[in-house]
Amino acid sequence: MFAKRWALVFLLALLTGCRQFHVESQADPAVDFANYRTYSFSTTASDIPEGFSSGHLFNSIMQRRIRAELYQELTKKGFSQAARSDASFIISFSTGSRQDVDTVRADDGKAEPGVIEGSATAVTRGALVIHFIDAKTKQVLWQGWAEAVMKAGDDLDEKVRAAVREVMQQFPPKAS
Amino acid sequence: MKARTSRGLRTGLCAALVACSTLLGCAAPAAFSDWERGADLSPGKTFAVTEAAQLPENLDERQKALVALVNSTIERELTQKGYTKAPASSAQLVVNFYVVRRMVEEVSVKARECYMSDRGELPPGTNWDSAAIACEESLVSEYQEGTLIIDIYDAAKKELVWHGWKSRKSLPSDAPELPGVVEQSTVDILSNFPPG
Description:
The complex is a heterodimer. By secondary structure, chain A is α/β, with parallel strands linked by helices. Chain A contains three helices and seven strands. Chain A is elongated. Chain B has helices at 2-25, 61-80, 115-119, 128-133, 178-190, and strands spanning 31-35, 46-49, 84-85, 93-111, 136-154, 159-169. By secondary structure, chain B is α/β, with parallel strands linked by helices. The longest helix of chain B has 24 residues, at 2-25. Chains A and B meet through helix 1, helix 2, strand 4, strand 5 and strand 6 of A and helix 1, strand 1, strand 4, strand 5 and strand 6 of B.
């Protein structure tokens, strides 16, 4: 029984330690997405969430990878890539990272600055942000983002493509 | 008390095992790379080392020597791997490098006097696992990290096809070990090239 319980903890630690995304999205409730069937990619990157910074990993290899995965996902959903002048919405995206110190105890404010009671670890969180923007009005129609703990040696190709797929599961938004 | 100690020891050993397993599950080498899947980076191609636009102008003599060291190390490593040096105008692969710096946080966990001795006897029913957490404290400090980045471009397509990097604590520019560290970092990064 004891061994089984720890085997389960071990398995969970491996799973949560290596792959897990926190995914969210937000849509303009006034938008009818049936009117948007064609898209084009923006040449400028999205703004990334506060606290994250875009580094050397958001290079042209990464950008081509995200475009390719978005193309695949949108094609499956019936959207078509078009010239900028014919597109009904524009896609911009970005990736970034942020360093956090994760603690196992809530900070009670009693410790000196730079000291945390209990065990703590420094972790790097990566974020992918995708914006769909109306080609004419330039208003954001929909935005989705994924966040995950990044590990040294992560397969970036696999991880980022998986993040794109997870975010795109939330598009188009279900009518409320 | 003996039973509690034995349980605590068992719990601690299992927690350590889980932590080690997690680390082993995600273990990785010290230098990393990302590349265009499907790109042909096989040995036999010609290459040229050029100066990256990201390198600052007005380098001092020490910095110029480091740039020359990295460039010659790249040439040596790629030649050993079967690539052939060629003029930049005709090379199939164009290679350059640059360095970025950032402040990063480091956490060190150390044992400390257990809270039980500070707060007296814990009441009956206290969760010993959570009480034991307070017997550690973590110190957070910041340091400057330097990252050496090597980029390889497909000259015909004018596309970045391979991106390798290694990060470590920055050394002072006059540190005697700096050239050795820079050379070894270059070797480590290129140990991941070609991928697969």
